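Lecture 7 notes. Example A: sequence first, then its structure tokens.
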Amino acid sequence: MSQFQRVLLVDAASGFYRLKKYGFDRYFGPVDLGIHMAEAYRSLNFGVGLFAGSIFPGSNRLMVTGYSPCWQGYYISSMGGAGLVFDNLGINMLSLVGKAPVPSVLFLNRNHGEEIEVEVVPVEAMAIWQSGRQGVYAMTDRVYEMFGQRYEKDPRILVAGPAAASTDMGGIMSVPINKGKISHVDTWAGRGGFGSAMVQQHGIVAIIYGGTSVNEDFRDRKVVDEWFRNKYNLHLMQKDLEVTTKYRYDEKLQTGGTFGVNYAGMGGRILAFNYRTIFWSEEERLALHQNLVLNHYLKQFNEETIRKKQQATCGEPCVAVCKKLNGQYKKDYEPYQTLGPLCGIFDQRAAEKLNRHCDAMGFDAISGGGVLAWLMDLLDQGVLTPAELGVKDKPRWTWSAFDVVADSLHNAALGCDLIDAILERRGILDFREGVRKWSRLHSRRKGVKLHDSLVHVAFNRRGWMVPNQYWVAGVLTPMAIMGKYYMIYSYDFIPPRTLGRMCAERMKQELILDNLGTCRFHRGWAEEMLPEVMGALYECKEAYQRAVSVLASRLNSRNSPIFWESERNIDYLHTFLKRKKTVDGETDPRLEEWLQRFATDKVEAAREFWYETLMGIDESLREFF
């Protein structure tokens, strides 16, 4: 228990820095310590877990913690692989405080020895974003050009884009650099808008870091294999291959990655045209899935990406090879869902166009896609005019006459134009204080609730989050942190109070991984084994598990959920419940009771469902000491 974590505190305003140490008596990883730092210093924190650089697959995630400008509360985001190079700094966490007077790059380098070089260097951010490959890609190129030669080993660069300067949903992007070559494998800490926090609150548009390895990381394969044989009768690599099948290649489905596996088995659960498909018949949804997804969108992906084995890792050795590519375009399910079918796009060329522009501008793609789909919906309904949103066209969302290539490309072009309109604040668009506040202001002016068609989870006075892209009750639950997988996304019918309890337990399990900087794609063994490893190496299994429970309760104690403001949220849940009965044949009498309540008064029924879920959450997160 004498282990401690090293935190480098950097004041972006002055460039001054200092090192602080925190023992295991209270904090074990980048999440519980990061939340403490955010409370104590109002800092934005970047940290790695104890096993960064170790033999354990997936242990090199870079965890980002702080106060989210988008969620309006404490938040946790993460980025694959970026912790491997961070570990070479010889610290566990970087905490940013203060604000640089002009947009700047933070340079960190540890070249042997004990000292870390720290520099805050001003740059012409807007000019860089508008140059070369545009946005975050241009910033990556420029920062590497400025500082790359000063590193003995390949560094890593974290960058924000224009969205971080003018909205609350700017993400942080990074790509692995191998032998001086910048790759196309985007990795993102997108959720929570921490790019916006980095730029608007600290004046930092990029961070470049690296150094020479100074730590003796745990790499005893014989010991680890013995642990795994005792638990699973398999070696570590055998078990990891087993649990990461979905992300690599699933023989049964003849596809792989989150994009391939999710779309292959989606069927009538397809979400498209800003969730309008929840109102369709099962036959209509199945026809859309067959004709536009299986026969075209997924078919293109399988032919271009899976069969050609265009895949990579996030920057660390890993058998999951979850990054599925087509040239420079990385294909993950949720970005290619929100900036795909949700926006009326079912063609890979069109989806690549819109995803690339959204990424280049530095948006969290899931939030950005959800907002674009909502704006397109308002245009299609005639609630807002193209002139009001600073564009010239309306979407082509007529399913009966949909041209999968031409209409997808039209909708992608409109999406790109809307992105530019948001950044340039054309027409009435101004998302600097978030979409909820913008909608409230203009709903009063228009005399109609614009946000009735915005599917989102509301938090605090103006916090918001586009939910994960699964048609299930769990994605709209009133948890303290949403937009991540701190909830149950089961397709089963689960009574609300039980759902709340299960979400609370899921949050604890996810925090076991996050607080050790470990990727959830390896959760099939990591949730169970990592506490055991903490016990074997540091004699603190029970203390670590207790700390995670306390952390979950601490986060929940600040929970400020808002009952669903959007009618489509209510319809989202109601149609999910109806489908459980009519399509899945669920016979649980409690489901029938809820359906009767919704038939009588859907708003009151939704409120009761929401509050019962919240009760289940609150009664399950009560460990504060």
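Example B, a different protein, same format:
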Amino acid sequence: MLKIHLILATILMAASAPAFAEKPIPIKVVVLAMYEMGEITGDRPGELQFWAERESLDIVLPFPMGRTDLLMSEEGLMVALTGGGVTHAATTITALGMDPRFDFSKTYWIIAGIAGADPEDASLGTAAWAKWVVDGDLLYELDAREIPEEWPYGMIPLGGYEPNQLDTGWTVDNITFELNEGLVEWAYQLTKDMPVDDTPALKEFREQFVGYPNAMTPPRVIIGDSLSSSTYFHGEKLNQWANDWMKLHTDGQAEFVMSNMEDSGTLTALRRLAQAGKTDFERVLVLRTASNYSMQPKDKAASWSATAPYPEDGRPALEAAYKLGSVVAHQLIEDWNETSYRIPKAKASKTKIKAVVVAMFELGEDEGDQPAEFQNWVERYPLDQKISFPQGYRDLRYNDEDGVLGIVTGIGTYRSAASIMALGMDPRFDLSEAYWLVAGIAGVDPNDMSLGSAAWAEWLIDGDLSHEIDIREAPDDWKYGYTPIRHPEFPWIEPLPEDKGGLLYKLDSDLVEWAYQLTKDVKIKDNDAMKILRKKYIGYPNAQKPPFVLKGDQLAAMTFWHGEIMNNWANDWVDYWTEGEGEFVTSAMEETGTLQSLTFLENAGKVDTQRVLVLRTGSNFSMPPPGVNAAVNLSGEKKGGYSAFIPSLEAAYDVGSKAVREIVAKWDTYRTELPKPAE
């Protein structure tokens, strides 16, 4: 039996005295129940009874403005009953929040009650922590027998003219409530592994929901959003409305999982109290547990859903609401020295990335305008989620279903190095098992490759780290003005210098061969302009071929060099640093910066450089056709643009995406084992 503390009783009798008003009781946690069946102890339980019976709520505080007296522990836990429906909830919480006896300025509020669950998402007994609560009462409604044939239902947003049309001029501000995501995640992480009671009655009831796999699972703890409506709706049609309604009002962010009858009233009051400085809306949690389903199984009528008894009178859901709610409440109180000043939040769970697509530049927006290296990935893969990345060149893009992340590094090795390091150090992502695909356009050697063709590189050689003398001032026997760093002599020093850090990188040969075999038959787009240009490369049979997929190595240099002599230098430079194993095919400006950062990140255990692929596609040739001056050719490209610019972008996506999709499709294998080529 609940006891009344004499000291508090004395204080309460003087509640209207000025002295009391100066020293309101600080409340740490308020648990809100919505209904009770009879007495608050000793009979069939509602949402309040387990709290009253199982917690040490020895302090009873009169509360004539509410449904029952307030119950409180010496530790600062208060439990209140709002009554059913949004009206009861709003009036009760407003009265409580304005009560001069209490200080709610640092209070955490836990709504803990039962709900109807969408069988598409949850099973009976399941407990859902909500990030969003949406009101389902404030709307226009027409009887479904009088709506136009094409309408799915008769519910219309305020200010709208048809279903699923947002307001066209007026609405109200208490339809959508977004809760503190960090706090919600913290509560979920704290309770997600707790066992939730299952019973034979629950099993028997959920077995009727064939075709709804989530409805047939044992109860568990999830994150799931809540629709608040005083109307106790049922049936497939209204269940669909609930799903649509929540997405409409949250810009697609909320997922209807639980239905209740009070929470929008409670949250309206708490938000207004926060505006008055009485509460902190960032300290609100909503926990709803499934006592019934919001629609019928496929072989029954909607009326069955409205009248079917709750298995075991909803007791398993009531148990779950108390069990999980009490764990969170007591943790908040136990850590009060910290939680009173700092709202807890879950340690950021890292997003597991399967593949990173690395582009180097984009001309304008990510979507809808003239494309560069990134846009096809964003629009077609698609990478439809934008993720803020202020420490990089531009925001990241992400495909949540596939776990594929996209980044634009910016042009040049210094930008690529900085951007990749920033991404690798970003605490939001787990990149330890990610595959990396650098996919961009390049200048190509007409000895090896044609415009639009796609080359998978095994060797990446840096063309910047060197000594340079203008060849006109070099000794007569020097072939080029470039010499290896710290060895300014020609012929170039042999054997190779011992310190080759940052000068060359070799990718995993098997992975490169696998990517080549997978994509070698991809048909690459061709056009008339490319055909005309490649015909000029008489004596270069590979340059005159239609676009094809090949293997070919890359020279990365910040200087956009051009011409036959520089092309010869590039071939010799790659041959020198790879000791004859590599073949210069493509020129680009970023990869050695990218690989330098990935190498450092691998040293820190954050990435695996064996999982790196580099694909470059020919947008232009690295030297002019026979009979054309290098300066004239470079100037013409600069003014007229690359004839293969768009086709090379298309090729980078068409060829590269095939490899990425294959990795994702076979992730169960490729997560731990690198792809191997056919023998």
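Note on Example B: Residues 1-21 have pLDDT under 50 and may be disordered. The first strand starts at residue 25 and ends at 26.
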